[in-house]
Amino acid sequence: MNKKTNFNTEMSIFEHLEELRQRIFIAFLLFITITIICFLYMKNISYILQQPAMGIKFLQLGPGEYFFTSLKVALYSGFLLSSPFTIYQITLFIIPGLTKKESNFIIPVLLVSIILFFCGIVFAYIILAPAALKFLINYGNDIVEPIWSFEQYFNFILLLLFSTGIAFQIPIVQIILGILKIFSSKDMYAYWKYIILGSTILSAIITPSTDPITQIIMSIAILTLYSSGIIVLKILNK
Asked: Name one Pfam family in it (predicted).
């Protein structure tokens, strides 16, 4: 049952809970469906995720390692691909209870947040992962032959992709803080020295590799995102 936009007709708490249950069920059903599809096409997904490794040979170091890693990758992929629909279902549930002003704020923020998250994943896949892996492969390649565990490699890639996607939410956090008048664009600009230090620390935490190249690239990306957040707030006169 959908909530009506006419607020003269109020829904009972049980009707709200029933609608929430239905939307959660629909989102969960889509998540399970996409996860199963991803598992069935795991060879294709594995091939895509292996591209940044530049032809490195992978080993299965334990019984069932490939199977359990495939399950993990399918779950992550299912969560990733179904997340926009899940957010859409949540939005449909909360919008009828919001004012027009609140809706005009929340909907664009959610949309931009989703776009930035996927931009972060693409950035990590195209730029960060190849840079990190190239450094790790070349370092000591005349002494040791790079042969990696299938599970450990995918843990590395998945962590890098998701952490970078989350890091790309920095402008969203800034905009929310600016709209709520907690920090203004002038305040954020005034702390630029601390932000440079913070971006260095954050990039070291986010990137699973310890190579300087990846951390420098990530630091530059964080500073760029932070600057873009300030620019947006200035445009909004916040």
From this structure: TatC
